[in-house]
Amino acid sequence: TKWKVLSTPYPSDADLKQMDAYNLHFNSTESILLYPKVYLDSTETQLYQEAAAAVQFRHGCRLHFAELVGVDGRLRDDFGRRFLAEVAAELV
User: How far is residue 55 from each of residues 3, 9, 20, 32, measured CA to CA in Å?
Assistant: First the structure.
């Protein structure tokens, strides 16, 4: 989880490298970078994958923006349930 607001709706190279290291350490094929949602066009989850031909261990990183604040300006109490449902729907 990254509790920082991005200046653009794209992850930094450093954040992707950190997820790459986590994937290697935990022998995972995919990770998720979770940021607070602040951009109107950041609703879709994007997948970033290692493209180098020399890499034997293929893995990727999904980027997800979470709606933490409701229309009333208050913190959403259903954030966790919504996030799990959205991620589960994308993995099917």
Answer: 30, 27, 12, 20
Looking up tokens 């094929």 gives 29
Task: Quickly tell me which residue has 């995972």 as its tokens.
Answer: 28
pLDDT in tens, 28-73: 888 888 888 776 555 555 666 655 444 555 678 888 888 888 888 8
